[in-house]
């Protein structure tokens, strides 16, 4: 069933790896697999392996298939699941607020945090160059791999199980984002905080890197001459917003319940 839904190039790669098992020592005690077992959701071992194959690893190993197609599928599954929950959980919120909440929950930052909690980073297959630059903990790679794993689950167990996994992982994140005011302009929040505290306006230093087709920007947010956060994004706006959000988290004590 799975092979019939994969391109021939991916079928050959999957078949070549069919002796691998997700419970093998290679994966060890992996929180992500433990969660799947807890939920009674199956993930084909070969699709799991494919979902963990970054393009840098594929390039160094003869151009084997990468996880990018699974990432494409998983992105769609994630959006459907989160959108469904938002629509049902917040019947009084207008479309604009729902869209902002969704953007916050499925952002690269949010997916990266989730990936770290699920222990995804150490399992990603990277090329040597990407490994040397800390790719196993790079937020963008973690986020992309998380989506690829959702795609692998959808192909293995079907859309209902994949959505069940999305709801289990992301419904609490949606609720948390709503409580914390996610979807707001974090640069404005940081600016207002500095004004209230009599501090200088935040300063952002941005450095771009990488080829034109895969450009990354790293923003450093400084308040009072001190570095409070740094974040890497796909564009300058994302990088600044991410750095501002992390700076807010570092500077402003979390709100406690009444």
TrEMBL record:
Top EC class, one word: hydrolase
Location of the active site: 75, 147
InterPro entries: dsRBD_dom, RNase_III, RNase_III_dom, RNase_III_sf
Record flagged with keyword Nuclease: yes
Subcellular location: Cytoplasm
GO cellular component: cytoplasm
Catalysed reaction, written as an equation: Endonucleolytic cleavage to 5'-phosphomonoester
Keyword annotations: Cytoplasm, Endonuclease, Hydrolase, Magnesium, Metal-binding, mRNA processing, Nuclease, RNA-binding, rRNA processing, rRNA-binding, tRNA processing
Protein residues bound to Mg(2+): 71, 144, 147
This enzyme's EC code(s): 3.1.26.3
One GO term of the biological process aspect: rRNA processing
GO molecular function: double-stranded RNA binding; metal ion binding; ribonuclease III activity; rRNA binding
Residue span, RNase III domain: 39-158
Known cofactor(s): Mg(2+)
DRBM domain segment(s): 185-253
Subunit structure: Homodimer.
Family the entry assigns: Belongs to the ribonuclease III family.
HAMAP family, per database record: RNase_III
Summary of the function given for this chain in its UniProt record: Digests double-stranded RNA. Involved in the processing of primary rRNA transcript to yield the immediate precursors to the large and small rRNAs (23S and 16S). Processes some mRNAs, and tRNAs when they are encoded in the rRNA operon. Processes pre-crRNA and tracrRNA of type II CRISPR loci if present in the organism.
Protein name: Ribonuclease 3
Source organism (scientific name): Cutibacterium avidum
Gene that produces this protein: rnc
């Amino acid at each position: 069933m799975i092979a019939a839904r994969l391109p021939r190039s991916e079928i050959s790669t999957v078949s070549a790896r069919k002796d691998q098992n997700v419970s093998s020592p290679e994966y060890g005690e992996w929180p992500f697999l433990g969660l799947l077992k807890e939920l009674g959701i199956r993930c084909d071992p070969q699709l799991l392996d494919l979902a963990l194959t970054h393009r840098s690893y594929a390039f160094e190993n003869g151009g084997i298939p990468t996880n990018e197609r699974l990432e494409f599928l998983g992105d769609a599954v994630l959006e459907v699941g989160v959108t469904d929950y938002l629509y049902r959980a917040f019947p009084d919120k207008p479309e604009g607020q729902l869209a902002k909440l969704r953007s916050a929950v499925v952002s690269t930052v949010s997916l990266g945090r989730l990936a770290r909690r699920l222990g995804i980073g150490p399992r990603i297959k990277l090329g040597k160059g990407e490994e040397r630059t800390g790719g196993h903990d790079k937020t963008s790679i973690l986020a992309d791999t998380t989506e690829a794993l959702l795609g692998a689950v959808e192909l293995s167990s079907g859309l209902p199980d994949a959505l069940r996994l999305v709801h289990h992982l992301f419904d609490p994140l949606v609720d948390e984002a709503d409580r914390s005011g996610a979807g707001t302009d974090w640069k404005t929040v940081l600016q207002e905080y500095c004004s209230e505290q009599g501090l200088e306006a935040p300063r952002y230093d941005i450095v771009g890197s990488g080829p034109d087709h895969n450009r990354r920007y790293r923003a450093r947010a400084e308040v009072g001459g001190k570095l409070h956060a740094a974040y890497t994004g796909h564009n300058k706006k994302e990088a600044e917003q991410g750095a501002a959000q992390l700076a807010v988290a570092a500077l402003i004590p979390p709100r406690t319940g009444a």
